[in-house]
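Instructor's aside before we start: the two examples that follow are unrelated to each other. I chose them only because their records fit on one page, so don't look for a connection. First example below.
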Amino acid sequence: MKLPHEHGSYKNKVDLLDENQAEKISKAMKQLGDPKRLQIFWFLCHREECVLNIAAIMDMSSPAVSHHLRILKLANLIESKRMGKEMFYKAKDNKLSKFLLETTKNAINL
């Protein structure tokens, strides 16, 4: 591609994010813009837990935690499984969750 201004030679070609990829990452990052939701996501990146225990750890009501979990699940960041009467949640083992966990870890060191 010929650029309007030539600033020397470019050794490394940088590709733009595909629009679909950018949309997915942007939506997930928006969901983590809520501090409580980010805390819940961080916690679930390190261990699997049930709603009642997450609520106790976060000092929140179960309905409030369930609301945040639903949003994180819709953003494809966490998954759930039923064990008896309880639902357990953990971060999904996917590229998006791993990327956002690493991004969060790096931000802590800023």
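Example two begins here.
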Amino acid sequence: MRGEKEFRKVRAHGQVVRHALFTLRVTDYRPRYGETWQPRAMIGIVVPKKTLKLAVKRNRVRRRVREALRTLPGLPPCRATIHPNAAALGAPFAELQAALGQALSGQFKPRKKKPAAPGPRP
């Protein structure tokens, strides 16, 4: 994914899937303006300094997640952002890959949004 605008769309409209190794937000695939219809997975990886302080560790987690996604067979067409936790750094690669595959294929049930609290009564 490119640009803050695409990340904001996923954040606003995406379903959240939480796992011990990462948090995933997924929406369905829609082409960019003027782009032809080519269903594919567009995934952004976000690792903030708050999660991992050292740049070396942040980059290593990004590389591990990117490789796990690259080697997964048949990703569904979607737009997604992945926020790996610090646990993803030390988890076995096969476990990380299996968890990402399950989350993207929809085997984890997304959390339902809490109903909005009623506003103050006049």
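The first helix runs from residue 3 to 13.
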